[in-house]
Amino acid sequence: MRFSCQQKTLVNSINIVQKAVSSKTTLPILKGIYLEVFNSHLKLVATDLEIGIEHVLEVNTYEEGSVVIDARLFSEIIKKLPDAEVEIALKEDNHLYIKCENSEFNIISHNPEDFPELPTIEEEYSYEITEDLFKNMIKQTVFATSHDESRPVLTGVLMEIEEDTLNMVALDGYRLALRKGKIQGPIDNKVIIPAKTLSEINRIISEEENIHITLTENHGLFTIGNTKLISRLLEGEFINYKQILPKEYKSKIKVKTKSLLDSIERASLLAREGKNNLVKFVVDENRLNITSNSELGKVQEDVYIDLEGEAIEIAFNSKYFIDALKIVEDEEVYLEFTTNLSPGILKPVSNDNYTYLILPVRLSAD
Questions:
Q1: Which residues of 217-240 are buried (b: 16+ CB within 10 A; e: fewer)?
Q2: Does domain 127-242 have CATH number 3.10.150.10?
Q3: Where would I find the DNA polymerase III beta sliding clamp central domain in this sequence (predicted)?
Q4: Among 12, 197, 199, 314, who pairs with 340 as Cys (CB 3.0-4.6 Å)?
Q5: At what angle do helices 71-80 and 7-18 cross, to 10 degrees?
Q6: Is the pLDDT of residue 161 over 50?
Q7: Which CATH class is domain 245-358?
Q8: HSE of 286, CA atoms in CB hemisphere, 13 A
Q9: Rounded Cα gap, residues 16 and 29, in angstroms
């Protein structure tokens, strides 16, 4: 095996696949990146047996072949090389030779036959979605997934495809994020994608092109340009989120997103010193009063609003509100409340593509 390419190009390719390298494994081969040279191309593959990432780039090919090299060492070496042509060759003693200008390395490699093959997925049909939309949908849902491994389905995002609509849903028991978008595909489907997988896809997406998604019973294949990401799907039944979403409200507020975010962030400076990051909302006529108390003192914020319906007093974990407001792109949002013990709803004013539900915190006076 022998090839050459530009250092920056190789660094970029390593960065794409490296996130799939296993950091917690007793198998040395999983700590490596598989390299294969064929037909003027270099294929890089990494996997932790849950996620596999494959990336292909054009190189100058002198001899075809394959090898597995320690990912961390290979990455650090290539990143430190000058911005110039890099030549890489596999020697007879299974050492990988790396040369760039005045630098030369000889690194011990692993047998490529020991590297696990990625699952074969028949791409008979696939769904297609624009990269900017999918990136946005991931950003607006994945943060609301659970980190509790005892409830595996909640550590992922539900992808529910109905006709030409994709619903992505995440919830952790305290909040729910629902994002709707358009997708092209042949059949309805419903799968749960691990949050880690979606975070990696979000990191890889950079080019202005459509993403192709193929779903099987156990795996999801995401094709982004010259990169393929294969992930196991989460098993289990996702919570019926449609039953959780309130059908009506008694109080509806329209408020400027930035004003509300800034006020809650200031109030949360004291809320963080309490037990629940608690901030209290008092809604009355054209004013939303936000207060927080702790042993260190008290803070009070007033935000101007448009109120439709009844006045209400309700309290929330400030972190959950801040998380949602930071990813809303609209200048104004609606807040909908029923009672001070019922979930609150946050929606952008300009469209109904995004819905965020948050459970209130019981006030001590209740």
A1: eebbbbbbbebbbbbbbbeeebbe
A2: yes
A3: 129-238
A4: 314
A5: 150
A6: yes
A7: alpha beta
A8: 1
A9: 18
